[in-house]
Amino acid sequence: MTILEQVQMLPKKKMPNLKIGQTVRVHHKIKEGEKERIQIFEGMIIKMNHGQGADKTFIIRKIVEGVGVEKIFPFYSPIIEKIEIKKESKVRRAKLYYMRGRSGKSARLKGTMVEDEDAIAEAVAAQAEKEKKAAEAEAQKIEA
Q1: Residue 56: its pLDDT value, please?
Q2: Helix, strand, coil shares of the chain as percentages rounded to 5?
Q3: Model pLDDT, residue 16
């Protein structure tokens, strides 16, 4: 059994369902000397390598001061802390290499913003708490 096969047998961490055209924020660890910190790389997924297990990778592209920057991330890499999905765009291609030749407004894709799941859960909990307090106040009025 090769080392790659052994690595692929290891349990995989839970990752969001990533698709081509999504704008994501990847929180990854950067090691500088002895210190380690988290750096955020935000951009659009232009390619997903459909490998198996440890072979799987994705490429994220962003524009920095007018220059396109692309990073390749292994899907189950231990340096990736978390991935946030910010926006989902409607695409009709499996690879968005044509985005490399675009800049400015032509580099935008039609899409929808993805709500932050934690914020939604907090809002629902706050609304439920508010309704509970209102029901208790109504019950006290009836008793009095």
Answers
A1: 86
A2: 30, 40, 30
A3: 84
